[in-house]
Amino acid sequence: MPVYNRIAETHNDMQAWRRDLHQHPELCFEERRTSAIVAEKLRSWGIEVHEGIGVTGVVGVLKGQGTGTGAIGIRADMDALPMQEENDFSYKSTINGKMHACGHDGHTAILLGAAKYLAETRNFDGTVHFIFQPAEEGGGGGDAMVKDGLFERFPCDGVYGLHNQPSMPRGTFNIRSGPMMASADVAVMKINGKGGHAAYPHLTNDPIAAGVQLYTALQTIVARNVGPVENAVVSVTMFEAGTGSNIIPQEAKLTASIRAMTAQIRDLVENRMGEICAGVAETHGVEVDLDYKRCYPSVVNHEKETEIAARAAIEVVGAENVNTETPIRMGSEDFAFMLEECPGCYFFLGTNDETHFHSVHHPEFDFNDEVLSIGASIWARLVEQQLPRT
Ligand SMILES: [Zn+2]
Ligand SMILES: [Zn+2]
Q1: Cα-to-centroid distance, 8 and ligand 1 (Å)
Q2: Which of 265, 269, 185, 276 is nearest to 231 (CA)?
Q3: CA distances (Å), 6 to each of 60, 112, 210, in order?
């Protein structure tokens, strides 16, 4: 079964919705226009709508035919990025410094397309929750919705999410069971030493010397503490210190991004950072204050729900276009918060072709509208397959 004909017929609508969202990008937790459009469309198709979940999140509730008690959640993210678009087509961003460069405009249009189809056909028995979340790009909108009682108010047997993937061929489906994307944390290390004249270093406790050693020592976490076949990254991305060539400063600051594929590795890295900071402080006679902030957990797909999603995808794009062993990625995704509360699966839909090859977050990125019908068909198929009419 390829793309649903009825969904293919709404391609022009989905494309128009997508391009309208593209023209009006909104950042983390500011998705007021976007969520209002989503809510209005869902209502117009007879779907029960709940707004303001996790600030600007929206949930649509659609019951099928029959008395089935099964329930599925499908999630799309709605937010854009704080960057300047460099495309020059008719529907480019109308807002300076804001751009849909990650394709969340496409994810939203896909889920709307699936909702329209499912509301019109209702060829299923049970409940579908259409989850439109804010603030995926660093704002933790998925977490905000979960904390706002998402799964208590809208219980789901399984929750599913997709992301476009411009590095993979258009219409392919890329998935894996178990850990698939890394956790993402931020560590800020403030070094408080004793400043002084550059000509008299022996009278100071140089925070730069301590910071350089701290940088080097942090590299040993991945090289020497994390197992060679495990996955973690410690990237020091900022090193701030000093105001003049003849001044040894009082303070230095290092900022790092930490990625880990499992909760155990995440704990290990955090613990080792604490120990290394304490050791460097002791060695250099400085204070090192570590502020380790846990941001997104790793995305861990559940085995059964991964099989369910793969089965739906195979029916739409064929087994030859479904890779169930897609490589793990060190990027992160706040769908992880939903997967911690509810079994589910997150996967990638390939979008690469001769006109769509820029990576997400590139100033010339544009979502590939050719996959709108494929994405909506996968959601529709998944619902009809998991909540069959008897
Ligand atoms: Zn992104
Ligand atoms: Zn994204």
Answers
A1: 27
A2: 265
A3: 21, 14, 64
Question: Could you give the CA distance from residue 111 to residue 159 in angstroms, rounded to a whole number?
Answer: 13
Which ligand lies nearest to the CA atom of residue 104 in the structure?
A: 2
The pTM of this model reads 0.92
Give the other-Cβ count within 10 Å of 69's Cβ: 11
Q: How far is the CA of 133 from the centre of ligand 1 (A)?
A: 14
Beta-carbon neighbours within 5 Å of ion ligand 1: 102
Q: Ligand 1 centroid to 15 CA: how many Å?
A: 20
> Which ligand is nearest to the Cα of residue 103, counting in written order?
2
Q: Which residue has the tokens 């099964």?
A: 70
Q: Compute, in angstroms, the gap from residue 185 CA to the centroid of ligand 1.
A: 16
Q: Residue 142: nearest ligand to its CA?
A: 2
Q: Which residues are catalytic?
A: 79, 136
Distance 360 CA to ligand 1 centre (A): 6
Longest dimension (CA), the chain: 85
Q: How far is residue 371's CA from residue 23's CA, in Å, rounded to a whole number?
A: 19
Give the DSSP letter string of 60-103.
Answer: EEEE-SSS---EEEEEEE---BSS-----STT--SSTT-B--SS
Identify the nearest ligand to the CA of 349 by its number: 2
Distance 81 CA to ligand 2 centre (A): 9
- Residue 319, token pair as written in the block: 């087994």
Q: Going residue by residue through the chain (390 aa), what tens digit of pLDDT does each one get?
A: 588 899 999 999 999 999 999 999 999 999 999 999 999 999 999 999 999 999 999 999 999 999 999 999 999 999 999 999 999 999 999 999 999 999 999 999 999 999 999 999 999 999 999 999 999 998 999 999 999 999 999 999 999 999 999 999 999 999 999 999 999 999 999 999 999 999 999 999 999 999 999 999 999 999 999 999 999 999 999 999 999 999 999 999 999 999 999 999 999 999 999 999 999 999 999 999 999 999 999 999 999 999 999 999 999 999 999 999 999 999 999 999 999 999 999 999 999 999 999 999 999 999 999 999 999 999 999 999 999 998
- What is the rounded CA–CA span in Å between residue 64 and residue 141? 28
